[in-house]
Fold these 2 entries.
Entry 1:
Amino acid sequence: ILMLVIALVVWGSGFLSKPYLNLLNPPSGDSVFVSPTSVIELKGRIDSGDALTINGQPVAVDETGSFTTAYQLQPELNVLTFNVKRFLGRQLTVTRQVYLTVTSTPTLLP
């Protein structure tokens, strides 16, 4: 019976389930997100207690699982890989593509 109780606690706590990621920005979709600015705010939520990296860099998450971080885009296409890792090793990976439009600076004539 003790083993059954332990199994129910572990199963019910979500340790064995797949991690959760709700990306608010950049938005989901089949197409590439276009940004007119070189810094984009990455924003979303994961389960508290899980760890988040973006392109391999750790991201701070608050006690509710929410995160907001500024990300410096490179000109043209940027691939952002969000990886959420659960305590016992389960992972979720989501990729978003963001295109930074490059605008030329007007040249002043003498």
Entry 2:
Amino acid sequence: LKKVVGPDELRKMADDMSPLTKNIAFVPTQDEKIAYSQIVTTTQKSLVESGLEFAISPVDIYAPDAGTTKNITIRIGLTSHTKTLTGDEAAVVIGKVITATMQATDATII
């Protein structure tokens, strides 16, 4: 037997699907002056402009005991509830996030 799925069930199934995710590792050039919260705040501002639902979570904050380099890695999840989000569309949003965050924090990505 095949079941006919209505629009409400399709929407629920889509909501249950995993979002597109991307990990981004930022390396602040001014290690002591850039905090995780600054990276996240700038990232959030860029993502709000995208109109997509998003989630940001920490992956890693690494600073060696005997060094000056600090890496801040975040995971961004993107979801659209109005259409299927393509990899190319997600790449454009992530590109804008990277550019805005690099400009605001003077960080590079690895």
